[in-house]
Amino acid sequence: MLHLSLIVLRLSVFYKNEFLEVSNALYYRLFWVDNGRGMVFLHAGLKEAIKQFNLTDGWIVLFKDNLYRDFLSHFPQAKDMLLFTRIASQGFIKMDYQMLIRFNQYAVDLQILISKNSPALMMQPILDTMLLHAGMQFDRFNDLKLNSWVDQQYVQIDRLIQAHFREEQPDTFYADASGLTLQQLNNICRKVKGRSILPLVGLARLSAAQSELANTSKSVKEIALDLGFKTDSHFSNFFKRATSMTPLEYRAYNSSL
């Protein structure tokens, strides 16, 4: 079923939707299979093809940045769960039978709410519960800890990015704020995410811009100012370089979902 911020589909239906297969990286994605082998969580912006995981039929839940940010605001402790720290590009969560049954019912409940055009406020608690359980299961089953100094440092860097990406800050700002040299900072970012600090800040700004364009009626100029761009043309040029679409083209494209 389709909704502006949330899409819940059987995987067999998703695989037949060429539009979603191409554009699914615009969403956070949680998907699992009927036999309960496991579930995968992907952050928005990651372009891994769903089919590469060789999953048979199951469910997929795709949701926009506004719902993900609301989840983190409702459950601040989730920011310390490794599934959501973005250290790994993807999180594989093992599922037992009871978890599978529970998540299948959550998916059905969400589909029913979407079919009734229910407000996101009614669907958010179900999504929150799914993400919280997935995060707890990921940490518990894998017994993962931030043992690596690099991992520990990156968690702090990511928090700085999320706190300051709306500001025009030089890379030295993030180095000073994290207590690292600029070389150390960029080495950590490249080791964990394959990019230096400023492209990661740009990705955070892009994600926020996509969410604002898709989920609000703010003008391009308002969004540009909110995200710290000096002019709306500066913002439009940034957005088109990243997505090959202007902000207004993206808004129209997204509204077709």
Notes on the protein architecture:
With 257 residues, the chain is an alpha+beta fold. The protein has 2 domains: 6-142, Jelly Rolls; 149-255, Arc Repressor Mutant, subunit A (Orthogonal Bundle). The protein has 12 helices and 5 strands. The chain has helices at residues 11-15, 18-23, 65-74, 97-115, 120-142, 149-164, 171-178, 182-193, 197-215, 220-226, 232-243, 247-255; strands at 6-10, 28-33, 39-42, 58-63, 90-93. It has a 5-stranded antiparallel sheet with strand order 1-4-2-3-5. A hairpin with a 5-residue loop joins strand 2 and strand 3. Helix 3 packs across helix 5 (120-142), helix 4 (97-115) runs antiparallel to helix 5 (120-142) and helix 9 (197-215) packs across helix 12. The longest helix is centred in the middle third of the chain and has 23 residues, at 120-142.
In short:
57% of the residues lie in helices and 10% in strands.
